[in-house]
Amino acid sequence: MTPALVDVRGLVKHFPGERRLLGLGPARAVVRAVDGVTFAIAPGQTLGLVGESGCGKSTVGRVILRLIEPDAGRVTIDGQDVVTLGARALRALRRRMQIVFQDPYGSLNPRMTVHQMLAEPLAIHRIARGADAERRIAALLEEVGLDPSFAQSYPHELSGGQRQRVGIARALSVEPHFLVLDEPVSALDVSVQAQVLNLLADLQQRRRLTYLFIAHDLAVVKHIADQVAVMYLGKIVERAPAPTLYGGPRHPYTTSLLSAVPVPDPKAQRQRIVLAGDVPSPAHPPPGCPFHPRCPHPKKDARCRTEPPALREVAPGQLAACHFAEEPL
Amino acid sequence: MTEPLLRVRDLKTYFVTEQGSGTARAVDGVSFEVQPGETLGIVGESGCGKTVTSLSILRLIPEPPGHIRPGSFIEFEGRNLLTLEPRDLRAIRGNQIAMIFQEPMTSLNPVFTVGDQIAEAAIVHQRLSRRAARTRAIEMLRLVGIPDPEERVDHYPHQMSGGMRQRVMIAMALVCHPKLLIADEPTTALDVTIQAQILELLDRLQAELGMAVMLITHDLGVVAGSADRVVVMYAGQVVEQATTAALFARPLHPYTEGLLASVPRLDAPPAREHGRLHGIPGQVPAATAWPEGCRFHPRCPYAWDRCRAEAPPLLDAGGGAEPGTHTVRCWLLTDPRRRTPHP
Questions:
Q1: What is the mean pLDDT of residues A184-189?
Q2: Neighbours of B17 (CB within 10 A)
Q3: Strands, DSSP E only, in chain A?
Q4: Measured between CB atoms, which of A189, A198, A260 is closest to B218?
Q5: What pLDDT is stored for residue B343 in this prediction?
Q6: Phi and psi for B232 in degrees, rounded to 5?
Q7: CA distance B88 to chain A (A)
Q8: Strand ranges (E), B35-170
Q9: What are the helix (H) ranges across A229-291?
Q10: Rounded to whole angstroms, what are the CA distances from B338 to A52, B254, B298, B330, B342?
Q11: Complex ipTM above 0.90?
Q12: Could you tell me how far CA A202 lies from the centroid of its own chain?
């Protein structure tokens, strides 16, 4: 087996509770956004990280790139420890890891032209200047499917899909090996979403990129990911190769999520599991299994309320954190 | 055939653009009907005019910059809503026709309790006393599945989760037992497990209360699961209209076909996985400059000379029990041989 390009172990990020009353009152509870997350991604592969709002999936992406500092855990990229790196070394490593954000409106500077946005990273990392930079910018635009004439445009002159292509071009400009894609297509219309997904697949093949694809849409993740990790309240509750996870989920949360996705086929006769209640707050996670208050498993018992289930291998390559993973829903 | 509950004929809602330089023809000649008790899905991408259509029905279009053009016609139970006096319109709006919006946070008033907001319509339209209206609000909260309604009735929107707020929105909309509920992307802002709860709730309430629902969404999966009939919109027009079964079994407009092929599917056969999605090339044109001829022709894989020159009308595709069951705005219907697989 090839060594992993990205290796994340025991990652923890807790956000301290803010003090009430202008910072003088009692502190709110600590938000356990990421609470011990472990995974690895092999070179050229895509790990899909899925979960609902507030499960901590975006925080994982940011902590890996140290856009947010982790509280504990280890992250290595290309064998290099990211967490202990000094500022200068970290900046050098940022050439190898980049991020594409969900909101192509919020993540592009409205006062910069596309050309300026692509030239900046080239200059900062001393990759190219002058005619060489011009050539690279034209090539980047072409690679993401934009006409080089877009270089002089401002973000407001572009459609959502075009902006997301600029965001991808900007990430690619420093020639990274690893991209964190944080909900890269969820703000786009379906016809445009398909174009961008195709583009990401092409780029991955051509440049042998490794992706962490963060999304809430299970159908999109099924389409693009090799491995899938499902998060709930800061923890990974199931992790497996995509066909295994979609073909035979072992965690009741995964099963329920999959059953809740609407399928564009009126003839599809599916047993929809409707989970009761809302996702609990990560500031007050339930004791025992974090999923137990909503769990529809018929065998749920006292153990689920007191003993947190470990993420363990329940089938070759398939990990699940459920006391009853051997008897899936 | 029963008399339709709502009949929209040749609706045109235009907006003067900010610079005053042009006119955005957001809704440009839309016609459809809603039968009593049915769910009509209205599907399309951003900018297709689906939300402006629903706002026009309730006459909630800000004027200026918007205006509904003369010749447009919206009939609810035999009365033209567009010529109604404001006073008569108010008696219908929020009473017989109610609406729920996508953003439950921004469409609830943050300084009133949810109980007050639910009770308001009952006090205004049904002249209930405050006490009776409060009891009614608690009943409504129970109906939409909010636990501890006696306590929740005094809560403010910020004390509730997104799913709960959407339930409150539904309670507000249904308090007067409307005959028509317009639901504009009611689950788009919600997580998938909460979306499933809300869709199930809407299905149950519709069956219990016998109301018609206009379900406006971009999600073909939501439509497939909930609607009886579907209207597909593109560039301010209806491009296809059919029963849900017929539309998904036999999508005839190239845009509908393209939309269905664009969606990554959970039920995709393994062979299609990791393959390329058949997205629709290009993007939706601007409402100030719809293309000549068929508005979809620049993105259409089948387009030929006629499509560039001549705007197609809605043509009958047959196949239904009576004419007009399945209509398609596409010249391919006159020349089916041109529908070659993946040109």
A1: 88
A2: 14
A3: 6-15, 31-41, 46-50, 72-77, 80-81, 97-100, 178-182, 210-215, 227-232, 235-241, 312-315, 318-320
A4: A189
A5: 45
A6: -100, 130
A7: 38
A8: 39-43, 66-68, 73-76, 79-80, 97-100
A9: 242-247, 252-260
A10: 44, 12, 16, 12, 11
A11: no
A12: 19
Tokens of B53: 């259509």
Give me chain A's average pLDDT, please.
Answer: 91
Q: HSE on the CB side for A219, CA within 13 Å?
A: 24
Tens digits of per-residue pLDDT, A202-212? Answer: 999 999 999 99
pLDDT exceeds cutoff 50 at A16? yes
Encode pLDDT of B109-135 as tens digits.
Answer: 999 999 999 999 889 888 899 999 999
CB A291 within 8 A of CB A42: no
Selection from A209, A180, A187, A210 nearest residue A49 by Cα: A180
Digit-coded pLDDT (tens) for B43-52: 998 889 999 9
Question: Min CA distance, B65 vs chain A (Å)?
Answer: 21
Round to whole Å and give the CA distance between A315 and A49: 20
Range picked from A183-192, B155-164, B187-196, B287-296 for highest mean pLDDT:
B287-296
- Give the minimum alpha-carbon distance from A274 to chain B in angstroms, rounded to a whole number: 6
- Contact predicate A296/A252, CB 8 Å: yes
Least CB-CB distance to B273: which of A162, A216, A223?
Answer: A223
Which residues in chain A have Cβ-Cβ distances shorter than 8 Å to B276? 198, 201
Residue in chain B nearest A257 by alpha carbon = B193
Q: Indicate which of B19, B199, B277 best probes the interface with A, i.e. most A CBs within 10 Å of its own CB.
A: B277
CB pair distance less than 8 Å for B197 and A274: yes
Nearest to A106 by CA among A220, A51, A187: A187
pTM above 0.90, yes or no: no
Most confident of A11-20, B97-106, B310-319: B310-319
Verify cis geometry, omega within 30 degrees of 0, for the bond prior to B65: yes
- C-alpha closest to that of A43 among A239, A227, A297: A227
Q: Are B260 and A264 in contact (CB under 8 A)?
A: yes
